[in-house]
Design goal:
By secondary structure, the chain is α/β, with parallel strands linked by helices. Helix content is about 40%, strand content about 15%.
Length: about 300
């Protein structure tokens, strides 16, 4: 079936409850679903025992002490029992439709990346997993949930043979999720947007677990992630996928007039590949942003 893997935050305060909810949902996706928890943060070993899943403690870290995603992906690939892998953020509740769409996509393509938008939902207590837990959560999403913009992704389904090499990204920082889509398109693997076919629920939380309580995208390691990814040309979103689930069917994404310019821009980045040429091309294609950035730098360094 499928191996899910994640690097949870320390199990302290509300985030501990949120992560317990998420992991409990993963173990109920179906027979044969494997779950791996990676890292040695406080409470991970106990959580693995509590949920009856595997724990892999030794993960390489960045110079700042943040777990490295390339190390996590390598460990998961080595330990996984299944062909299909899924990295998922540890605050995300999954429903059985994830495995259904992953299985269908895996049968269609040898290599691919499946991603999708999430729903944001305030969850203040532990979930009750009876026979109606899935339909009950869907009802709550319909009444209280908020659709998150397509800029970021919280889960990534791919075959074991994919993403064998990746930069030393810092976990829990911005930039690397966009690179996943960019890299898959660069390798000419189908990128499938499953937003309309898979219900993914992100539980609301603050940023108390991060340095100075800042959002992840404002931390220096997010800038470092972006640099490792190849700069702004690598910032691909779900709308840059080339396949999509629509009306229950997997098909190629149709491009409307509003998306033609972005499609041309994407084609240029993919043709040039990572490097200086792509960065220069982006500067030319976004002149207003380029001028604003230049003015900001001049104001910061007037000399």
């Amino acid at each position: 079936m499928i191996t899910l893997f994640s690097g949870p935050k320390p199990f302290a305060g509300p985030i501990g409850l949120i992560q317990d909810n998420a992991i409990a949902s993963w173990t109920r996706l179906g027979e044969g679903v494997e779950v791996l928890l990676l890292g040695d943060e406080t409470g991970i070993r106990e959580a693995a025992e509590r949920h009856g899943v595997r724990h892999i403690p030794d993960v390489l870290r960045t110079a700042n002490g943040t777990p490295r995603l390339d190390a996590m992906f390598a460990l998961a690939r080595e330990a996984a029992a299944h062909r299909l892998l899924c990295y998922v953020n540890a605050d995300v509740i999954l429903l059985p439709d994830l495995w259904e769409r992953a299985s269908e996509t895996g049968a269609r393509f040898e290599s691919f990346l499946m991603v999708g938008q999430r729903w944001d939902l305030a969850v203040a207590e532990g979930l009750h997993f009876d026979e109606r837990w899935g339909p009950r959560l869907r009802d709550e999403v319909r009444t209280r949930g908020r659709r998150h913009p397509p800029g970021g992704s919280d889960y990534f389904v791919f075959p074991r043979a994919c993403f064998q090499e990746m930069p030393a990204f810092a976990l829990g920082r911005a930039g690397w999720d966009n690179w996943m889509i960019y890299h898959a398109r660069l390798q000419r693997w189908p990128v499938v947007d499953a937003s309309e076919a898979v219900t993914v629920i992100h539980q609301d939380h603050d940023y108390a677990h991060l340095p100075e309580g800042k959002p992840h995208y404002r931390l220096p390691e997010s800038e470092r992630n972006l640099e490792l990814a190849g700069g702004r040309p690598s910032v691909f979103s779900l709308t840059d996928s080339d396949w999509v689930y629509a009306d229950g069917r997997l098909r190629r994404r149709r491009v409307g007039l509003r998306r033609l310019l972005r499609r041309a821009e994407v084609a240029i980045y993919l043709a040039l590949g990572p490097g200086r040429a792509a960065r220069q091309a982006r500067l030319l294609m976004h002149p207003i942003e380029t001028l604003r950035s230049l003015r900001s730098r001049l104001e910061e360094n007037p000399g």
